[in-house]
User: What shape does this take?
Amino acid sequence: MSVLLFNLRGVPKDEADDIRALLAENNIPWYETPPGNWGISLPAIWLRDESLLPRAKTLIDEYQKQRYARVHGEYEQLRREGRHKTLRGVIRENPLRFLVYVAIIVAILYFSIKPFMDMGAR
Assistant: This one.
């Protein structure tokens, strides 16, 4: 019977590709379900043989530990060099986009709160 191995919702494309390659290299039969037309189905990698689940989980856990160490190391190097992303840097990159986002947030808050403020004035 098939069993869910790895949920792909919110997973970066390179990580999903690495998981697929990892399973193929270790001769673990699997199949994938897409998110569907409206994104409401479960995008996931499934195992065809439930007995392979512990082995596959172990491989994926080890991969994710290695990936975390690599990505964290890359981030720390960028931080030491002063090239990591910060809020200040994002605003400097595109100040107009930042101002538009702030204006949208203020408008949403205004229209969300205004009816309640009007009730208190009566």
Summary: The chain has four helices and three strands. The mean pLDDT is 94.
